[in-house]
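User: Sequence recovery, please. Input:
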């Protein structure tokens, strides 16, 4: 599938780009080369190839979720400069 300079100008307009006639001819050639490459890729036999989200075999490296004891409220507030009703007191920022 080849595109014409008019179609390339339309795509440039949709992208809010403006090109001189020389640039438009150049980018029309680039777009046609891209479309030819995509057409070449479509000819590759992919039967039996499973879809994948990543080209490399990767595994989840996260640890298992385990219920652990958390820091006691008194220990968390032990060095707080100001505290009130079991919470840190910070300056109001507007």
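Assistant: Recovered sequence (94 residues):
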């Amino acid at each position: 599938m080849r595109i014409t300079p008019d179609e390339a100008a339309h795509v440039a307009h949709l992208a809010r780009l403006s090109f001189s006639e020389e640039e438009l001819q150049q980018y029309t050639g680039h777009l046609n080369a891209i479309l030819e490459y995509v057409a070449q890729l479509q000819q590759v036999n992919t039967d039996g190839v499973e879809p994948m989200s990543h080209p490399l075999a990767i595994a989840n490296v996260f640890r298992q979720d385990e219920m652990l004891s958390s820091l006691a409220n008194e220990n968390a507030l032990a060095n707080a400069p100001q505290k009130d009703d079991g919470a840190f007191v910070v300056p109001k920022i507007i």
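The longest strand covers residues 83-84.
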